[in-house]
Amino acid sequence: MPVNAKTEDIEAFVAVVDTGSFSRASELLGQQVAKVSRAVGRLEGVLDVTLLNRTTRRLELTEEGLVYLQYARDSLNLLERGEEALRLLNQKPSGLLRVDAASPFVLHQITPLIGEFREAYPEIKLDITSHDNIIDLLEHKTDIAIRIGDLSDSNLHAKTLGRSALHIVASPEYLASSNVDVALSSLGKHRLIGFSSSASLNRWPLSEEVKLNFDLKASSGETIRQLCLAG
Q1: Rounded to two decimals, what is the model's pTM?
Q2: Is 152 part of a structural domain of the chain?
């Protein structure tokens, strides 16, 4: 059975769903809003269903749109993989690769490997950014994001790189200068350093729930690391 839907129309539909609006989808695709709107309308005409309910304030997938979305994603991903396979047959990997990770991971895990990576893949240009909180990959135009924890967005694909246990730490100078009480109830008596940007990053590996009061906060994980080392 022939496929009547055009790939560019399917791509426009998925972009609108992922970004939440026609205007943001047009920015992502580098097209005019009217062209994106026509593409989605054309796709609905070919399929003879309404995929999106449109109001002045929001877009909402219809039941048919929700069913079609997964097939649309799978088809685009398959086509992309096919094009990539053909490119790799005749040339080395090339282009811009945008990677995002927390600042300590960038500095201490990624940076030492950059030289070896560039030697192996000289045609790839790297754009490395640092965010300690969860970001919207589409909004930040990021190809790969490295994070700790479970994947919350089912539209993304994740691969486990490794496992790392969480620890409660203090600098040797702080431990030497303070009368350290290791009881959980005494945590409130210590100078605690935490994240200011995301409450989820301030969940410590404790055996029972304890209210943590941070008298010093920072948005960067590397800043927090250096503050801790400084005592």
Answers
A1: 0.51
A2: no
